[in-house]
Structures are given as C-alpha cells and as structure tokens.
Design goal:
about 550 residues; eight-stranded mixed sheet; 10 helices; 26 strands; TldD protein
Length: about 550
C-alpha cells in the first residue's frame, strides 16, 4: 500500500484527516451501539448549552484507488477518514463544529463549540432559521444493495483486470493507455434531537480508462475515454451481461453491467478512426445525443440551475447562480423545454450514485417532478428552504462530503424521463436527414447563470438521410438552455434509458464534492448550432 497519490485525488470526499489503512481494517465495521452512545453524548451536550435543535453525523469514509498505465501499476491507495460533525440551532442561528477525536470529552467540547458559534452568529442574524417539520424515525438503517463488496475483492484480481485491459488496448494499436478503478464506501450515522438514529452503508464504484492513439506521420494524437458510468453498486457492475448491453450502432453501450474488455477494444478502434476523421462543417444539425453524453448537459443546464440556493443567490462563488428565478416558477407556465421534456429528481433510483435512504438531515428520500411537460414546476430544497416554496417538508437534498464538512443543499439524481412510445436509437437515426450522433463527455462551458453553453463529445458521427456515414472531429454544439430543451423533439423508450454521472460535482466555498447520477434515453434535438473547434477545417 502507498499513500494517497494523484489517482486518489480524483475520488470524491477524501477528507483532510484521511489515513492509510489495510484492506482488512477497511472491512471491519464500527459497532452501531457505540455510534449511538457517541451521538447521545453530543446531543445531550448541545441541549445542555442551549441548543433548540441538534444533529450529529458520524462518518467513516473509505476510499480505494488502483491506477495503472500500460504494463505498470502506478498507485494503490487505501484510505480512511473517521470523525463526527455536530450541527445545532441556538438563538435562531446555525452553528457547526467537528472532531476526529471520538472520546466523550472531545465530543462534548465539539457540541459546545457548535452552540457557541451559533450564538455568535445569532448576533448578526436578520431572520431566524425556519426548519421544516421532520418526524423522528427511531433506530433505522439503509444499505446500498450490493451483490459483491468491491473492498472484499482481492487487490491482485483488480490489478490483473486493469492490466489485462491495458494489454488489449496495446495489442489493438494504442500508443498509451491509463486505467483506473475507484471504490468508495461511506458509513454514515445520523442522529438528531427529532429522535432519529439512522445507520447507512453506501457503496460506489467507477472503472475508467483513457486510450491514446498517435499518427506517426504527423504526430497528431486522439484519445477515447471509457464509456462506463460511475455507479452506486458493488463489484458486480464489472460482471458483463449481454442483456445489459445495447448493440447495433457504432458504439456498444452498457446499462447496469459494464464490459471493460469490450469497451477498451472498441476504444482502440475509435482512436484510429478519430485520427482519420473529417472535420465537421459548422451549421445547423439535428443532434442525436446518447446518455453517455447527455448526462453532463442535464447536470449543467438542468441540475445546477434548479438548486434553490443558486436561484436565491445564496450560492454564487462556485459556478454562479441561476436564470430560473422564483418569478418563473411562480408563473406556473415558464416554458423550460418542449412538451417531450420531463425531468425528475430521485434520491432512490437503484444503481444511481445519489441513492440513499435518508439525507444528511435525516429526511427520508423520494422523488418529485422538476420539469413537467416542458414547464418548470419545482426546485431542489432542504429543511431550512422548504418554507420559501410553501412546502411542508424538505425534499431530502442535504449532503456533506465529510464528517468535518457542514451539510448543505446538494443536487439529487436529476434525470430526463424516457419517451412512452416504443423507439430505439437505431430507429431514431433512420428519421434524421442531416445530423450528428454524439457519445461520451468531453469539453464544455456554461455561463454564470447556467444559460449559454457549449458541449462537445468523445465520439461524433455524421448522419445523412437516415444513415451513419462516418466519424467527425472537432464538433461542438452551442445553445442556451431554454432554446436547447425546446428543440427536444423525440426520446427513446425505457429500454434505452441509462445512467451517467460524476463522482465529483463541486459546490460551495470551501468547496465540497458529491456523487450524482443523471439518467436519460437517447434523445433528439432539432436545428442546433454546431461549430468547429479545430484550428482549421482541413
């Protein structure tokens, strides 16, 4: 085992107090009775100092990273961070403190410090905190329904898997290849003065790679990243299943199982094609966007602008505010997109990164509409925001990336619902006269109100008269959010629906990261402006 290296820095939520541990130690859980006793120490200390509300989060965060390049193992890192955060309301204001010393005296001091901070903040208070009502659940638990705990799989097996994949890429003509496997286990215990004691065991996994090909005659290079999705699953995600594949197009796509060897073999073929691909001619095209690409557009242009703290201007330093101001929601008729566009927030979707039983305020998770038949109907809220929208309860959107971080409003899984009419991606392509079919995330930009944007893809294919005629390069589309989603004319059905997502959605200052998924079917957008991002067209 080594210390946390470059690869490990990509994993969401490695707190500052992380330490190296053995695999065996990672597999030893903390007794839930001990966590309850520690939580009660903090809750009692907070109330004794004048807190009218208090919650406690005891977090044990395990991260394992394996990084390889060609025939070498670059890094193996196993880290643990373990501690407690205490949040309180006193004199109408929030206070927070944390400690990684979990003896009774240190816990009580952290709780007392949180109350002192709240009372200090109250001197500057304009309006007291208004918490939505929340019943206590007593002692309950929730676990990611994994079939195989990734931390239990021998390191040698995981290393062999990555090196074998690298070997296949090199045999196929790749010049360079990097492959990585990221595994996360969040063991989170929440307790509050509402009467909840919630123990959760959350697992996430992400296999990924980058294949690079070089044209020896001119030195130009192209890359193709893995088309895997980070998932809220165990190691079973890496057991291929034909029933979880979509074939027949230019790219094999994956649902709830991923075939690493197949994808990396295809990637070596794709980089060779990209080196010879013709540059895109700028103009208007109908776009067919695969979920491996569309998830990021959803994340940036739908997920972030419907976060209520951005709408209210509470969040601005990290990636701006939102054009979806309250007056648009209050009108009940703001046309966000076409009638085909239905966007759902869901904290319970199986396999998703954001799937948990309860959020970091002890609110039971569920789902709700954000965009209904193209109309903005809701946002994302937490307990102290619910009253702003006239809601009686929080939507369970509170999250902290560590025990040492204060929880705040974070994005749930935000997904585009599939169409109701049977339709495959191949059938969709047949009806496109002049278009581009895009796969995978690549470069992007979006303005500070989440309105004007530009996105490109890992792979782009030209469509002419209903047929895919070849690969394109340097293709990027430009639009504004409302214009883009109103150009959505067709959605594949539920059989094509897939999850994409990110391990590291950044927000806040100091910055925190969270893991979130975005599902969608293959979707068609008509008449979108496409530009050429290359230095020249030849």
């Amino acid at each position: 085992m080594t210390g946390i290296g470059l690869g490990a820095s990509m994993v969401q939520g490695i707190p500052a107090f992380g330490r190296e541990i053995s695999v065996e130690e990672a597999l030893t859980p903390v007794d839930v009775k001990l966590k309850k006793r520690m939580a009660d120490v903090a809750l009692n200390a907070a109330r004794s100092k004048g807190a009218t509300y208090a919650d406690v989060r005891i977090g044990r965060y395990l991260n394992q990273v394996i990084a390889t390049r060609e025939k070498q193992v670059q890094n193996i890192a196993n880290s643990e961070s373990y501690g407690m955060g205490v949040r309180v309301i006193a004199n109408g204001s929030w206070g927070f403190a944390a400690t990684n010393n979990l003896d009774n005296d240190s816990i009580a001091k952290a709780a007392e410090m949180a109350v002192a901070i709240a009372k200090g903040n109250a001197k500057l208070l304009v309006e007291p905190v208004q918490l939505a009502a929340q019943k206590g659940f007593g002692e309950v638990g929730w676990k990611t329904p994994v079939e195989v705990n990734a931390f239990e799989v021998p390191i040698t097996d995981k290393v062999s898997m990555l090196l074998n994949a690298n070997s296949e890429a090199m045999k196929g003509g790749a010049k360079y290849v990097n492959s990585n496997l990221f595994m996360v286990n969040e063991q989170k215990y929440f307790a509050s003065t509402d009467g909840s004691y919630i123990d959760q065991d959350i697992h996430r996994i992400w296999p990924t790679f980058t294949v690079t090909g070089i044209d020896p005659s001119g030195g130009k290079f192209e890359t193709r990243n893995a088309l895997s999705a980070p998932m809220g699953m165990g190691f079973e995600y890496l057991t291929p299943k034909d029933t979880e594949k979509i074939k027949g197009g230019p790219v094999t796509m994956y649902k709830k199982r991923y075939d690493l060897m197949e994808d990396i073999k295809e990637a070596t073929v794709h980089v060779a094609e990209k080196l010879k691909a013709k540059p895109v001619l700028p103009g208007k095209y109908d776009l067919v966007l695969d979920p491996t690409h569309l998830f990021l557009t959803i994340h940036e242009s739908v997920g972030h602008p419907t976060e209520l703290d951005r709408v209210l201007g509470y969040e601005a330093n990290y990636a701006g505010t939102s054009f979806l101001t309250l007056d648009k929601w209050e009108s009940k008729r703001f046309n966000f997109g076409s009638k085909a566009v239905n966007v759902i927030a869901d904290k319970t979707e199986p396999g998703s990164l954001g799937a948990v039983g309860y959020d970091d305020e002890g609110v039971k998770c569920g789902s709700w509409d954000i965009i209904k038949d193209g109309i903005l109907v809701n946002y994302q809220t937490i307990r102290d925001q619910a009253h702003i929208l006239g809601l009686k309860a929080s939507q369970a959107c509170c999250y902290a990336d560590s025990w040492e971080s204060i929880q705040f409003q974070r994005m749930p899984n935000v997904s585009l619902a599939p169409g109701k009419t049977p339709l495959s991606a191949a059938e969709m392509v047949k009806n496109v006269e002049k278009g581009i079919y895009m796969f995978g995330r690549n470069s992007y930009s979006i303005d500070q109100q989440r309105y004007n944007f530009q996105f490109s893809a890992q792979l782009a294919y030209e469509i002419k008269e209903g047929k895919i005629v070849g690969m394109l390069k340097d293709a990027s589309y430009q639009a504004n959010t409302q214009e883009f989603w109103n150009s959505c004319t067709q959605l594949c059905d539920k059989n094509d629906y897939r999850l994409g997502g990110t391990f590291a959605d950044g927000k806040g200052q100091p910055g925190q990261v969270s893991a979130v998924s975005h599902g969608s079917p293959t979707s068609r957008f008509n008449g979108v402006n496409v530009i050429n991002t290359g230095r020249k067209l030849g």
